[in-house]
Amino acid sequence: MKTRTRFAPSPTGFMHIGNLRTAIFEYLVAKHDGGDFILRVEDTDQNRKVEGAIDFIYDTLKLCNIEINEGPNNEGEFGPYIQSERLDLYKHYAEELVKMGKAYYCFCTEETLEEMRALADKYKRPFMYDGRCSRLTEEEIDEKIKSGEKYVIRQKMPKTGFSIVHDVVYGDVKVENKVLEDQILLKSDGYPTYNFANVIDDHLMNITHVIRGNEYLSQTPKYNLLYEAFGWDAPTYIHVPMVLGEDGNKLSKRNGDASFMDLYNEGYLPDAVVNYLVLLGWSPETNQEVYTMDELVKAFDANRISKSPSSYDIKKLRWFNAKYIKNLSDEDYLKFVRPFLKYDVSDKSEEWVNKLLLIYKDHLSYGNEINELVGIFFNDEINISKDNQEFLNSDENIPVVINAYKEEISNLTDWNVEVIAEVINKVKEKTGIKGKLLYMPIRIKISGVEHGPELPDEIYLIGKEKVIDRLK
Ligand code: GLU
Predict the structure, then answer these.
(1) What is the number of the ligand 1 atom nearest to the C-alpha of 198?
(2) Under CATH, to which class is 386-471 assigned?
(3) In the predicted structure, residue 254 carries a pLDDT above the cut 70
(4) Coil, helix or strand for 192?
């Protein structure tokens, strides 16, 4: 059977990196076997629906080089791929289950359920629907339906024995059936719950491997009972531990946590993000850290997904991103980084701008960071810290070197990195000063700080006039 996996997000118009990592794992499991990757939109909670969310999912996955074989925008033979367009299917299968005696109509009102909850609270028991509607007679049921009473359809759970779920990551998980609640399959508004829809859809869409967050693991025995009732094969389950935020909490949309699009807009390269995310909770057999998508497809093995939760670490992501930026061709790098530059360069030559940007190619962690690095080339004022000022006053040779620079630079007729490099040599010869005392004073005088790009580059980019001015 062809391997088929699915990514099943709710259309919230937001994707944090935990969701994206699930999508990547799903994609890799499918492609490793030469299978298909399907997008299914789980919009049964209509309150969470956001306009344009489906295109947003397509855009995000496309940026990450994840090709969707079937989905709402490229339907295959298993559509529709949006759950709200499949309501009649869920209704049909829910009613089948009622006929089989595996599910029942429940007419309990919100008030009745409230009373049950209050009672559970009183006796300090976890709330669980008590199954009272499963004991209604057929006449009672007919009567209630005829008189227009609202109902849900609930799954009838076995009260004895236990269920075992086989999971690739967690192994065999055993659960006593008596803790399984008679869960709602179909709500009174005709919408299915996730707990029902996921089973129907995964079966009808021929999904072979279900990869999802481990919060669904404890519910999975119920899903298996549904598969069993219909006589269907359950898929292979791969439940993955959560990605925790830097604060150790669950990532959430509400906190605006680690959104992929935010990272993208800050200048993180999607390939780098994908590479970083794959290694968050999955470890390859070798020490290789940097992977192309093709290499990942070859190497990926779900058996090597870790059971422990992983934490999002922006520093590590930056390390990956910097590596990917460094590996870009100069041309691609300039195309990538140029839009991030916020300073006005209308009076600068193209050559100047490119030179400036290229200087940082090997050091940049993310696109937007360029603005933090290049300020010295645009700001009129520079700030020299107290320590640096003290350094400038610390040696009588320093004014000598600075004067020598000023003179040599003023005499220049050409302005390029080569002649500037010569100036540095000349100052060295003329003054007999070398090392830190040769470089540091001019660096601090012209930029305010003791670190920066290569000195000739720095002098060149700041420009002759400004350099002379700052040396005064
Ligand atoms: N809509 C569910 C979610 O976003 C999907 C879980 C699954 O993959 O089955 O968590």
Answers:
(1) 9
(2) mainly alpha
(3) no
(4) strand
